[in-house]
Specification:
51% helix, single chain, flavoprotein, 4-stranded antiparallel sheet, alpha+beta, globular, 10 strands, 4-stranded mixed sheet, binds flavin-adenine dinucleotide
Length: 384
């Protein structure tokens, strides 16, 4: 039987996050966004609400929920603001999840309680200045020396890497050569503040301006051998599986933005008058909003389906790519339409739709570009 209704617990979570986003985030996020500032206090409050621990077991301080719960929460956050949604997405799905999925019992005990409570933030350093889509082309290296990994290289565009809450970044690095001559890539935890680990200035970005994105460099950074995450040489496979899940989360975030565009447009179309009547009385405007709702609703089904397969333990790569590709393009389309519905005010930063417009584009780029998703879907179909 198909049943995509939320159960009582998930519906309560959805309502709680919706209220938090409307009451706490909405009134203040615009100012942080315009100042390019990371709102530590709001992030702490999201931690107190339990958002960073949603899909983790209670023994690590998590909520004992599922990855789908995380996605539902991300959708409601992004319906109001994407900077805070990506802060949670990256903190959970990229910061804590690699340790939970692949870490040793000691690593889990050391890091997960802090990461689940939101008292600490983790980051995931895969992309390098020389390339993101071709992630296997990693140039950062790590060599074993006297029981320590010595890391050299750099990473680009890393979310949550330099906030005052950040305590670690897990990086991928070349640790040797595979028997087939390819690069052996491993994942290693680098605690913030380790000597030789430099965190660059925040990038000046088009969108997600209240989130933290940095370039990182590693110059003879020494961390204990035990900081290896999972098996040596499994780093590439690990991050591919982390990205498969992450695509469902980015899809949920995209659906939230697309739905936020509908919310704002319905409101504005009822209030704004032109030619003696609300603009929403014009079919041209009403149809734009109807189309936006159609896209948001169908994109939601795409991520529900991918999450359902993942929770059932079935292969879900193709569905995750479909959901990510479709909903990020829906977010872009809805942001364009919502700005149009708002006319000149849609171009003013004080209106949420202007933020949605600026935040939508990255959804087609981060955690695998639209072209990469099309490649993955085509390959899964046996073409390309
Ligand atoms: C705000 C922000 C936050 C980010 N956060 C993180 C993070 O926390 N951790 C992290 O590791 N990374 C992060 N990233 C990096 C992001 O995942 C990469 O930017 C993305 O994967 C694309 O890589 P790239 O920028 O190197 O583009 P490239 O790989 O250089 O691609 C450039 C263009 O070429 C296309 N292209 C590349 N190869 C092919 C091909 N074979 N066929 C067709 N087209 C192709 C791409 O689709 C794209 O259009 C972030 C990026 C941004 C902007």
């Amino acid at each position: 039987m198909l049943d995509y209704r939320l159960d009582d617990e998930t519906e309560t979570l959805r309502k709680t996050v919706r209220e938090f986003a409307q009451e706490v985030i909405a009134p203040q996020i615009g100012e942080f966004y315009e100042r390019d500032e990371f709102p530590v206090q709001i992030v702490r409050q999201m931690g107190e609400l339990g958002l960073f621990g949603l899909p983790f077991p209670e023994e690590y301080g998590g909520a004992g929920g599922t990855y789908f719960d995380l996605c539902v929460a991300l959708e409601e956050l992004a319906r109001v603001d994407s900077s805070m949604a990506i802060t949670v997405e990256a903190g959970v799905s990229l910061g804590a999840m690699p340790i939970y999925r692949f870490g040793t019992p000691e690593q889990k005990q050391e890091w997960l309680p802090r990461l689940c409570s939101g008292e600490a933030l983790g980051a995931f350093g895969l992309t390098e200045p020389g390339g993101g889509s071709d992630a296997g082309a990693t140039r950062t290296t790590a060599r074993l020396e006297d029981g320590h990994w010595v890391i050299n290289g750099s990473k680009a565009f890393i979310t949550n890497a330099g906030t005052e809450l950040t305590q670690l970044v897990t990086v991928t690095a070349v640790t040797g050569t595979r028997p087939d001559g390819g690069k052996e890539i491993s994942s290693i935890i680098v605690p913030s503040g380790t000597e030789g680990f430099a965190v660059g200035q925040r990038y000046s970005k088009v969108g997600w301006n209240a989130s933290d994105t940095r370039e990182l460099s590693f110059s003879d950074v020494r961390v204990p051998e035990e900081n290896l995450v999972g098996e040596r040489g499994r780093g590439y496979a690990q991050f591919l599986s982390i990205l498969d899940e992450g695509r469902i989360a980015i899809s949920a975030l995209s659906v939230g933005l697309a739905q936020g565009c509908v919310d704002e447009s319905v409101k504005y179309a009822g209030e704004r008058e032109a030619f003696g009547q609300p603009i929403g009385k014009n079919q041209a405007i009403a149809f734009m909003i109807a189309d936006m709702e159609v896209r948001a609703s169908t994109a939601r089904l795409a991520y529900y389906r991918a999450a359902e397969k993942m929770l059932r333990g079935e292969p879900f790569k193709r569905e995750a790519s479909i959901a990510k590709l479709y909903s990020s393009e829906v977010a872009m389309d809805n942001a364009r339409y919502a700005t149009q519905v708002h006319g000149g005010y849609g171009f003013m930063n004080e209106f949420p739709v202007a933020r949605f417009y600026r935040d939508a584009k990255i959804l087609e780029i981060g955690e695998g570009t639209s072209e990469v998703q099309r490649m993955l879907i085509a390959r899964d179909l046996g073409v390309g």
